[in-house]
Amino acid sequence: MTFFAKILLALSLLAAVPVQALETAARAAMVIDYDTGTVLLAKNADEPLPPASMSKLMTLNMVFEALEAGRITLDEKFAVSSTAVAVRGSSMFLNTQDRVSVEDLIKGVIVLSGNDAAVVLAEGLGGTEAEFSRQMTVRARELGMMNSTFVNATGWPGEGQVMSARDLVFLARRLIKVFPEYYTYFAIREFPFDGRTPDNRFNRNPLLALEIGADGLKTGHTNEAGYGLVGSAVRNGRRVIVMITGMESASARSSEAERLMSWAFREFSMNTLFEGDVEIARAKVWLGDASEVGMAPVEDISLLLSYRTLPNIKAEVIFDGPIEAPITAGEMLGELVIEVPDRGVLRFPLAAMADVAEAGFTDRFKAAFNILKTRVMAGELL
């Protein structure tokens, strides 16, 4: 004697407002909420594209992993090869007489975007830049970055040097989450290494100077890739990661990154739709010492939602009832199904809020008699 029950829940009395997708001039872009991983915007997110210096984030990931494993230390010094000195592009202005600490090389890569510093680190860890690049590609695959391939440690244009927006955002999130003690380097605004870079000592990340809570990560530019940026900022305890590439100028990159960052913070917020251990529905009980039992989520159900989306959410409780006793508090009895526009269907378990024991002999006899009587009256047993 069971039936499939649905209970519709009203979440809002506001009028429905259509969700509007945001457009961007970037060739590829991605915006996510850091804590939940919710994708707020994606454009050509899985297309492998030239990453320019943004690929240095993978170089740094390899360095941070080596530091964590104890293979190197921050104060360990690496020699500078003639190959590193000769590399083109942005520079830390190293020479072959230098022996530079790993910490200074990290700062040189992040703040100065030094291609020479990246090559020194690559040679120090991999023996050669080519071997280090191979190791980066292998590690990228291990981490699930399937649209990333490396042929150098710098991001200098090279056949096959590609990353996708999704891979870059994944990598940025990993650097923040896994290496908090090293992530602080990304917020350094200037690094006048040995007085060699008087006009080039400032961090190229334009978001750091805007006082919008930005604390990372990396810019990139080549003629092939255009202007790109992977950035992150925190406001009111919430972090957002933005990635754009293919912008036509440094100023366009800066304004678009700021616009997307502001949109992500303004448009979306965490909303607690249902509180854990708070009853949201009741189910009939069969042959129990109580006729009903309350059901509640096992924990708070909080979702990152656009204020435009919130009025359009639908929710219902589904369970197979009446539920036969005995029932134990905390036992899973059904599920809460929430339908969110553009996000699909989300399901959450619902638990019994109280114990319900089996009914006594007399109550069970009466229940059985009533069923028999009902079936006779319906003509089922005639």
Number of strands: 16
- Our Rg estimate from Cα atoms comes to 29 Å
Helix content: 25-40%
Range of strand content: 25-35%
Number of domains: 2
Mean pLDDT: 91
The CATH architecture of the largest domain: 3-Layer(aba) Sandwich
How far from one another are the termini? 20 Å
Oligomeric form:
single chain
Number of helices: 9
CATH level-4 homologous superfamily of the largest domain:
DD-peptidase/beta-lactamase superfamily
User: Structural class, judged by helices and strands?
Assistant: alpha+beta
Instruction: Output the strand order for the largest sheet.
Output: 1-13-15-16-11-10-14
CATH-derived topology of the largest domain: Beta-lactamase
Instruction: Using the coordinates above, name the CATH class of the largest domain.
Output: Alpha Beta
Biggest sheet character: 7 strands, mixed
SSE string, helices as H and strands as E: EEEHEHEHHHHHEEEHEEEEEEEEH
Shape call: elongated
Quick structural summary:
With 382 residues, the chain is an alpha+beta fold.
